[in-house]
Structures are given as C-alpha cells and as structure tokens.
C-alpha cells in the first residue's frame, strides 16, 4: 500500500515547492497514470458482483436489481441495501461472515475513492511515483507530508488485484454459501480470505 510522503523525507530532500499539482501531473508519468486509471476502473468488477449477489438475494430480475443498486450512491448505502436483502436470505453464522465481507469491501472502496476524490501531483524528486494530495477548502495541501501519499506501480497493481479478489469473493460466496449451501466450506474460505485482507 502507498506510504505517506513523510516516509520518503529521509530518502529525498523534497520540499513543498517540489510538488507539482498544477502542470498536468499525470502527464509527467503516463505509464503510472494508466495504472491509476486501471485501479479506478477495476472497482466496476466488484460492483457488478455486488449487483449479481443483490439480484440473487432478491430472486429477481437482474436489470431491476442493477438499476436500484446503482441508483444508490456510496458504498455505505449499497452495503446497507445488500445487508437488508441478506438478512432474510442468509442464516446465522453465514450472515456474520457476510457482514465481514461488506466491511472489507467498504475499506477497499474507500481506498479506491481516494484515487478519484483527491488531487494528483508529481515531484521530480520521486520520478517513478505519483503523489496523491488530500484536498482542502483552500485547494491542495502540500505542506503536510502526512496527507500526501506516494503511489508506485506496485500500489496500483495491488488495488487492481484487491478488486479482482473481491469480485471473485462475491461470486464464490454466492456459489458456496447460497447455491450449494455448504456453510462450513464457505465460512472456512471466507475467513481465510478476510484474515489476509
């Protein structure tokens, strides 16, 4: 996962004036910019799997389920909708595991949302990285290095891989816990993945 810029201060002599937030920072490293875009786009697979699960829980039309699910903005609202549907369909311990799955999903979505909602920057002191700055009411904060994250290629690849794993987890949860009904296998598989998340 990305580290804050303060971590790199001992390695480089970076100053706030070295942080470029205005002159097309993503264009300074187009290969990493493409990785960032893929990381953002990778969330779509998770949402598709969540929609599929929602439709399965409702035993209804995928198109109507997708429309109602996607009309909700934000992971909290979507998770609440899934949980409400799950309470009728998923018994006991499997529901607790499902709630853990939703919690991991929420954390992953918040990390992904940072890529969309924060401000990109670049610094010549870290040419193989992109910086992500926390926005403030006055613009972008470049003085507090604890509010600036440094993203390398591996960080974006990790986000993409996490999204793929979450999408698979939702699909496998449907198959194991809901279709085949083998709660012990689903619980073991889910716990092993959630422990690593």
- Residue share in helices? 55-70%
State the end-to-end CA separation. Answer: 12 Å
Largest sheet: 4 strands, antiparallel
Run of helices and strands = EHHHHHHEEEEEHH
Spatial arrangement of strands, main beta sheet: 1-6-3-2
What ranges have pLDDT less than 50 throughout 5 or more consecutive residues? none
Class by alpha and beta content:
alpha+beta
Mean pLDDT: 83
Tally of individual helices:
8
Account of the protein in words:
With 197 residues, the protein is α+β, with helices and mostly antiparallel strands. It has a domain at 40-117 and 155-196. It contains 8 helices and 6 strands. The chain has helices spanning 5-8, 30-41, 43-58, 62-71, 75-89, 92-117, 153-179, 183-196, and strands spanning 3-4, 119-121, 130-133, 135-136, 139-140, 148-151. The strands form 2 sheets. Strands 1-6-3-2 form a 4-stranded antiparallel β-sheet. A two-stranded antiparallel sheet has the order 4-5. Strand 2 and strand 3 form a beta hairpin. The radius of gyration is 20 Å and the shape is elongated. The mean pLDDT is 83.
